[in-house]
Amino acid sequence: MPARPMPPDAVPGSAARRSPLAEVALVFGRLGATAFGGPAAHLALMEEELVRRRRWLTRERFLDLLGATNLIPGPNSTEMAIHLGYLRAGWAGLLVAGAAFILPAAVIVSALAWAYVRWGTVPDAAAVLAGVKPVVLVVVLDALWRFGRTAIRGAFGGALAAGAAGAAFLGVNELAVLLGAGAASAARVARGRAAGISPALLGALVPAAAAPVTLGGIFGFFLKVGSILYGSGYVLLAFLRADLVERLGWLTDAQLLDAIAVGQVTPGPVFTTATFVGWILAGPEGAALATVGIFLPSFVFVALSGPLVPRIRASPVAGAFLDGVTVASLGLMALVTLQLGRDALASPVSIGIGVVAAVLLFGLRVNSAWLVLGGAAVGWVLHLVG
């Protein structure tokens, strides 16, 4: 990554009265507090604000950075914010942009988590969440369909996704599944050159069985997830369920789906679901450690990946590895969607809400944030009249 705070192809005439660092804080703070709709919507808003309106950089440069974020683990829209902050205001901009984009959502999610822990078992709150859960399921299905159409190419890609889902169903660790799929894809392109994962590494990847909740454990788990998660925020579902629900026993399926629902109904990064989970597990300290843990790797990866991106792009084998990881992520996503559907579609009413949400999303392309809010409203109204 170059040491200059401004890109060489930045468009002239973009100077503002505010300092570049203040601009970065203002723009990304506002986006973090108002950007609903998930990573794709976030990226569209950034392009409109920073390329079209403020002219911080050209569209070509924006697309180059977007490609770079897809080569590293972590939440794409957050990493894009970090890249753009660096280009506008140097290293200080890198830190400020990421923090400004993350913190508003983390504060909102923390407030909701506090209310959930205090009143989550009250029928009113349960009714609202019951209306949201089937909508979240539909939103995840929509994302899975769109990602699959782009990422899965040919019979090999389909077999890789199905194999990943099957391996995860049989209990293979998700990280091992991702690395194995990447190695298989890379080996195919390399025409038979050795590629694999050592048995020792696979053993190290399998977490321990049920264990008590600790602050160190919360931070370590989310640091691991932020360091290895490819795909999108929705793939986070697979990692959370496999470790926190099945292996460690820290959450129930219902709590996990509630956490995902809160991540959907709030603006900013979907990864702030970790904030909600951390609060459920250990209060404010758990929320803070979970948030820092899951987002910290993004800052490091963005700072380090710049010089490596051209070399990775130039390597067919490295590119194939990342393609395999992406396809496997979709297989994991499909599996966890089926598992969570059992809780989300537990009654005729919830099935009806899901069907209506599917029609509005797939047929009319209504923004997913509005659908989630609508599901909450329907749940509340049904509780009042019932």
Written overview of the protein:
The protein is mainly alpha-helical. It folds into two domains: about 80 residues, no CATH class; about 280 residues, no CATH class. The chain is about 75% helix and about 0% strand. The protein has 16 helices and no strands. α5 crosses α15, α9 crosses α12 and α10 packs across α14. The N terminus is likely disordered.
- Identify the overall geometry: globular
Order of helices and strands: HHHHHHHHHHHHHHHH
Count of separate DSSP helical elements: 16
* Radius of gyration, taken over Cα atoms and rounded to an integer in Å: 21 Å
Strand content: under 5%
Measured as a percent range, the helix fraction is: over 70%
Overall mean confidence score, pLDDT: 80
The overall strand count is 0
What is the structural class? mainly alpha
Largest sheet: none
Oligomer: single chain
Low-confidence stretches: 1-16, 192-207
Number of domains: 2
Summed up, what is this model?
With 386 residues, the chain is mostly helical. It has helices spanning 20-34, 39-53, 59-69, 76-119, 123-151, 154-169, 174-189, 199-205, 215-228, 236-247, 253-265, 273-305, 309-314, 316-344, 348-364, 368-385. Residues 1-16 and 192-207 have low confidence and may be disordered.
State the main characteristics.
16 helices; 2 domains; mainly alpha
Question: Mind sketching the topology for me?
Answer:
Blueprint: H1 20-34, H2 39-53, H3 59-69, H4 76-119, H5 123-151, H6 154-169, H7 174-189, H8 199-205, H9 215-228, H10 236-247, H11 253-265, H12 273-305, H13 309-314, H14 316-344, H15 348-364, H16 368-385
